[in-house]
TrEMBL record:
Pfam families tied to this protein: ADH_N, ADH_zinc_N
GO cellular component assignments: cytoplasm
Organism (species): Geodermatophilus pulveris
Domain called Enoyl reductase (ER): residue spans: 10-335
Gene3D superfamilies: Medium-chain alcohol dehydrogenases, catalytic domain (3.90.180.10)
GO molecular function: alcohol dehydrogenase (NAD+) activity; zinc ion binding
PROSITE patterns listed in its UniProt record: ADH_ZINC
Catalytic activity: a secondary alcohol + NAD(+) = a ketone + NADH + H(+); a primary alcohol + NAD(+) = an aldehyde + NADH + H(+)
UniProt family annotation: Belongs to the zinc-containing alcohol dehydrogenase family.
UniProt keyword terms in alphabetical order: Metal-binding, Oxidoreductase, Zinc
Enzyme Commission identifier(s): 1.1.1.1
InterPro entries per the UniProt record, alphabetical: ADH-like_C (IPR013149), ADH-like_N (IPR013154), ADH_Zn_CS (IPR002328), ER (IPR020843), GroES-like_sf (IPR011032), NAD(P)-bd_dom_sf (IPR036291)
Protein name listed in UniProt: alcohol dehydrogenase
């Protein structure tokens, strides 16, 4: 079976023939239909994140068709079209029982972080981590929802966005374009900030009322202008550099919430006084809950969450990642084995 393997920082990704997989007890084996290419993969290549072991097969946004069942699996059948929740939660710990399975203390697996991911012809995952893909949603789209679309849903839930809120989406990659739509569904007014004209145009088509080109505009001033001087109620920071952090804080209004979703190697300085007086807060949002993946697939089935997907062969993984790094991917790229 072919798989895209990561062996460590500074070493090229390789497409290798690896041993065929068998589903263990409680697992299902999937024929991968598509696996999304995410900024997280760049963080691995750069050493900002380190997987639990190497070599490891990358790819944590996976959808496919069930090819075989391990011992004791029920409720899933061979031939089912499924999306995979990337963090295979235990469903027993205090976080899981509270519904926050994305914070699980004892995960059974974690695609591309601890267990082999979906940049491969097949992947084996716990049956409890797969979610049926509704009719009308194609598998490449379902794959992208496993991370970008559902991460957007989670971030909006964490931020407690109210109808009528002024929201800024800082960064219009895969997560950002999904956020624009989820915020539109929540009744927010959306300002999208980016550096690519094509991505900003897409953001506008998907529901952003205002777009700001950060390469030639003072972002905070543009946000204040778009909000009658008030500043934003919520800013979603999807880039996470020093520069974007400063601008995001400056764009925030009274009682505003800055939500960190993206990150980089940069540090950001915070001036407590400047935040205390307008009673602002900073929160963070990581990944998503399994239930949010179900909700994202449902939104997609109803045409309320669309993803612009481009498909590429597994062998092109390294090139697609470089395109992503250079900002050349509009929407989401997926690898198809
Ligand atoms: Zn991802
Ligand atoms: Zn758990």
């Amino acid at each position: 079976m072919r798989a895209v393997r990561f062996s460590g920082v500074g070493r090229p990704l390789t497409v290798e023939d690896v041993e065929a997989l068998r589903p263990g007890p409680g697992e299902v084996l999937l024929d991968v239909a598509a696996a999304g290419v995410c900024g997280t993969e760049l963080h691995f290549l750069d050493g900002l994140l380190t997987p639990a072991r190497t070599p490891i097969t990358l790819g944590h946004e996976v959808a496919g068709v069930v090819a075989a069942l391990g011992e004791g699996v029920d409720g899933v059948a061979v031939g089912d079209r499924v999306a995979v929740h990337y963090l295979h939660a235990c469903h027993r710990c205090r976080w899981c029982t509270a519904g926050d399975d994305h914070l699980c203390d004892a995960p059974l697996g974690f695609l591309a972080f601890a267990t082999d991911g979906g940049f491969a012809e097949q992947v084996a995952v716990p049956a409890s981590s797969v979610v049926p893909v509704p009719e009308g949603v194609d598998l490449p789209t379902a794959a992208t929802l496993c991370c970008s679309g559902t991460t957007a849903l989670h971030a909006v839930a964490v931020a407690e966005v109210r109808s009528g809120a002024d929201a800024v989406v800082y960064g219009v990659g895969g997560v950002g374009l999904a956020l624009v739509q989820v915020l539109r569904e929540a009744g927010a007014r959306v300002v999208a900030v980016g550096r690519s004209r094509a991505k900003l145009e897409l953001a506008r088509e998907l529901g952003a009322g205002v777009t700001v080109d950060a390469s030639c505009t003072d972002v905070a001033a543009a946000v204040r202008e778009a909000t009658d001087g008030r500043g934003a109620d919520v800013v979603f920071e999807l880039v996470g550099t020093k520069e974007t952090g400063v601008a995001a804080l400056a764009a925030l209004g009274k009682r505003g919430t800055l939500v960190y979703v993206g990150y980089s190697a940069d540090r950001v300085e915070v001036d407590p006084l400047a935040m205390v007086v307008p009673e602002q807060r900073i929160v963070t949002s990581v990944g998503n809950r399994r239930a949010e993946l179900v909700a994202a697939l449902d939104l997609a089935a109803r045409g309320r969450l669309v993803t612009s997907v481009t498909t590429h062969p597994l062998a092109d993984a390294a090139r697609v990642l470089e395109d992503l790094r250079a900002g050349r991917v509009v929407g989401r790229a997926v690898l198809v084995p």
